[in-house]
Write a structure and sequence with these properties.
This protein is of the alpha/beta class. It has one domain: Ribonuclease Z/Hydroxyacylglutathione hydrolase-like (Metallo-beta-lactamase, Chain A, 4-Layer Sandwich), CATH 3.60.15. Helix content is about 25%, strand content about 20%. A six-stranded mixed beta sheet has the order 1-2-3-6-7-8, covered by helices on one side. The protein has a six-stranded mixed beta sheet with strand order 9-10-11-12-13-14. A hairpin with a 4-residue loop joins strand 4 and strand 5. Helix 1 packs parallel to helix 2 and helix 4 crosses helix 6.
């Protein structure tokens, strides 16, 4: 059985959130890579992007069973806790989130009570683990490289690939964040491109060239034919050399520091301090 898929594009962060559901009113759904609105200038949050997703789920009387994260995002804050309060569901990510937590607890000098076991999430997927979205069977696929904890989710004929791949004319994810590895990313992409040629691939972001509109769906066959970084015939050595050169020219994402310290907590903010206010840290010269 193949899923119904509704995409929600957030233009501020160029993120696409997906509602993946059974083809019937009242069916089960999973929400993938939700976005909490965040203004880095004021520190204010909002739920406009998440509310559009919640409205769609409610209008179709869908039952939210999963709130899936492909990884601990560096470019937006997760709205999973807000959507969980609104709609229910289990917040889940890959079990290698523990590695990311360990790295960033040190970088951010997080509170001693912060646990490095992934217990902030409701479920941690292992590589190859299967799970259900109602009658839809899904498989979690560990695709490290961009970060150690990246997961793709294969649901029917559709794979939600996070930041491993972008549209063919944009290429692939960067690998220069702490724990990133271009060799691992190449091998992860090969796993995805070994899926059947007609498998639909859904991106987490799109950064389109000027001549086309934003889009987020392609296929394994199209990526193998035309991806500018990793099409058929590009060797691992060639990919790693390209990725290393390119990553050295990239600046850090605007929201990496606020986003990571929230997203390794499954979208929750740090505990309030003694004045009742929650704070995010900005380490100096650490990245």
């Amino acid at each position: 059985m193949n899923p119904q898929i509704q995409a929600f594009f957030d233009p501020v962060t160029a993120t696409i959130t997906y509602v993946v559901h059974e083809d019937a009113a009242g069916g089960a759904c999973a929400i993938i890579d939700s976005v909490l609105d965040f203004d880095p200038k004021s520190g204010r949050t909002g739920t406009g992007s998440a509310d559009r997703v919640a409205d769609y789920v409610r209008e179709r009387q869908l039952k939210t069973v999963w709130l899936l994260e492909t990884h601990a995002h560096a470019d937006h804050l997760s709205a999973a806790p807000y959507l969980q309060r609104q709609l229910g569901g289990v917040i889940a990510i890959g079990q290698s989130i523990r590695t990311v937590q360990d790295v960033f607890k040190k970088i951010l000098n997080l509170e001693p009570e912060f646990q490095l076991d992934g217990s902030q999430f409701g479920h941690l997927f292992s590589d190859g683990e299967t799970f259900q979205v109602g009658a839809l069977t899904a498989t979690a696929i560990h695709v490290p490289g961009h970060t150690p904890a990246d997961m793709a989710y294969l649901i029917g004929d559709a794979a939600f690939v996070g930041d491993t791949l972008f549209m063919p004319d944009v290429g692939t994810a960067r690998c220069d964040f702490p724990g990133g590895d271009a060799h691992a990313l190449y091998r992860s992409i090969q796993r995805l491109l070994s899926l059947p040629a007609g498998t639909r691939l859904f991106m987490c972001h799109d950064y389109p060239p000027a001549e086309r509109e934003t889009t987020w769906q392609t296929t394994v066959a199209e990526q193998r034919r035309a991806n500018i970084h990793v099409r058929d015939g590009v060797s691992e050595a060639e990919f790693v050399a390209m990725r290393t050169r390119r990553d050295a020219t990239l600046s850090m994402p605007t929201l990496i520091l606020p986003a990571i310290q929230v997203n390794i907590r499954a979208g929750h903010f740090p505990p309030a301090e003694d004045n009742g206010v929650r704070y995010l840290k900005i380490p100096i010269d650490a990245l």
